[in-house]
Amino acid sequence: MRTPKVILLALAVAAGALALPGTASAAYSDPLTTTTKQNLVWHATPAAALTALDGALPNVSLNTVVNDTSYDMTGCTAAEKASLPKAPVATKAMCWDADRAGTTTWSPQGITTSGDADNDGKWGDDKIILSGWHGTDALGRYNDARIQAINYNDPAKPS
């Protein structure tokens, strides 16, 4: 199935655009070329569309996003805790709030951390977890994607 690869590529480009200062066009400075094995094809975004996007959305760093206090991770319910692996035993767990955990319109697709980006495990001053999601057919739109950015500076209270 090609859709997850395309979504992961879109998430990677979006994450790069969020993390880089300046215009969104900075994320497009090294374009992907056509690959036969993965069946991916680069479709350049017109400069006017990138300029319009820059004008419509604030340009902030990923650090700004994860330090915004408008969303906190919730604790796991008893049912979620019961579904954790028994062997090896899970020593840490994060659970989404009821709206995200129970959704039928969004499906989690991937996870990465700032440890994949830098040797010290941080992006700037922050430990960050990124979770990529894609919209399902129940959403009623095609190829929607979103990223959940989690501040993991305090493992006892991710936010």
Report how far the terminal alpha carbons are from each other. Answer: 33 Å
Beta strand count: 3
Largest sheet: 3 strands, antiparallel
How many helices? The count is 5
User: Could you give the order of the helices and strands?
Assistant: HHHHHEEE
pLDDT < 50 runs, ≥5 residues: 1-29
Question: Which strands sit side by side, in order, in the main sheet?
Answer: 1-2-3
| Helix content, binned percent | 25-40%
Number of domain modules:
1
Rg on CA atoms, Å: 17 Å
Beta percentage is: 5-15%
Shape: globular
Average pLDDT confidence is 77
Secondary structural class: alpha+beta
Furnish the topology, listing elements before pairings.
Blueprint: H1 3-19, H2 47-56, H3 62-66, H4 78-82, H5 98-101, E1 106-113, E2 128-135, E3 145-151
Antiparallel strand pairs: 1-2, 2-3
Quick summary:
The chain has 159 residues and is α+β, with helices and mostly antiparallel strands. The chain has one domain (3-151). The chain has 5 helices and 3 strands.
